[in-house]
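As agreed, record passed on underneath.
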Amino acid sequence: MLPERTGFIIWVSDLKAARALERFGSVHYMSRKLHYVVLYMNADRAEEAVRQMTRLPYVRKVERSYRNEIKTEYSKDSEDKTRFYSL
């Protein structure tokens, strides 16, 4: 079974040094313009890794991603109104 994964958005001041964040997890995206890194790691070791990341000199702020908590299953509670707008 796959381990539970959690995502973090890490705001950095130096993107070249931010490549070293790969030792904490999988780097999904690095924004050159806005200077942030999207990183995914196992949830069981996330707390310790965040503590270590905040100590790094090039890390400005670490935010947890709420993507896992967003509802992705939708229900159709209202009736379909497309038949009223058809020709």
